[in-house]
Amino acid sequence: EGPAYAFIGLGHLGGHLAASLVRNGFDVTVFDRDPAAVERLVALGASAVDSPAEAAARAGNAISCLPSPKVSETVLAGPGGLLEGLPAGGAWIEMSTNGRDEIVRLAALASAKGIETLECPVTGGVHLAAAGKITALVGGDGALYERHRPAIEAMCAKSFLMGPIGSAAVIKVITNMLAFIHLVAAGEALMLAKQGGLDLAQTYHAIVASSGNSFVHETESQLVLNGSYDIGFTMDLALKDLGFALRMGKDFGVPLDLAARVNAIFEQGKEAYGGSAWSTQIVKLLEDAVGT
Ligand code: NAD
């Protein structure tokens, strides 16, 4: 039997990741402030406790998947947080998407209490996460990665050790920047096809087989065309990650014209449909503008 894990943050993404751990036979102790999310995991065989500290003390190692660096800091270092429960030598595996500065700072908080951090943001979306086929981008010590690799591989089909803490944040923010640019581009393409009188199902397949295809077109255009938009990833999360990308551009001296434009479009999307709307609803801005 492998090591036990606390899992904090059982939302659209974390719920699937924690479920994969349970399904693969790990001893998982969960906490989320949403009781319904906890119940879903308990039904699958996880144990539930009343705080991150209790979960960490019971398991000895902790994983988190939370909506913002601010929440990650509370769950890690706030009252009743992971650092109150983790034993010396325990590990914190942070699967939320953070900016580089944020994860470096949070890892330093953990390190001051004798806890090692592995950053492990993931990419591929909730549908791949549900299938255990999401990709992990890892930053941190190589030996620590090896120690927790069985758990990472129980949740993710592929993992890439990128370098020290902060390096996974950089690649993760880059991949999301690309994904949001691709989403807006795919939306513009679909709208041109629609207004040009094309059959949209046929358009979808023609683009998949073309030089203009992208992972985002393949996996998200269908959600736009069928009107569900349900990608399990919100406008607020998109704006969080685009903010990290734009700050990285400034920090590294790289002009990011496309990302800046896409960020402005997502700000419009949030204003129009709210921060908890699915990120794919960004295409509705164009549909509304064209009046279809
Ligand atoms: P989510 O909002 O669906 O889930 C967050 C969960 O954290 C919720 O269940 C919420 O109740 C819980 N939570 C909030 N504050 C808490 C607290 N103080 N204590 C305990 N639990 C608390 O978000 P998500 O979509 O699952 O995303 C989580 C992270 O993963 C984000 O950093 C996001 O950028 C990243 N991510 C998401 C996806 C995706 O497709 N959804 C893909 C890759 C990365």
TrEMBL record:
It comes from the Bacteria. Residues 6-163 form the 6-phosphogluconate dehydrogenase NADP-binding domain. Its EC number is 1.1.-.-. The keyword tRNA processing does not apply. Residues 166-286 form the 3-hydroxyisobutyrate dehydrogenase-like NAD-binding domain. GO terms for molecular function: oxidoreductase activity. InterPro entries: 6-PGluconate_DH-like_C_sf, 6PGD_dom2, 6PGDH_NADP-bd, HIBADH-like_NADP-bd, HIBADH-related, NAD(P)-bd_dom_sf. Keywords: NAD, Oxidoreductase. PANTHER family: 3-HYDROXYISOBUTYRATE DEHYDROGENASE-LIKE 1, MITOCHONDRIAL-RELATED. This is NAD(P)-dependent oxidoreductase. It comes from Mesorhizobium abyssinicae. The lineage of its organism: Bacteria, Pseudomonadati, Pseudomonadota, Alphaproteobacteria, Hyphomicrobiales.
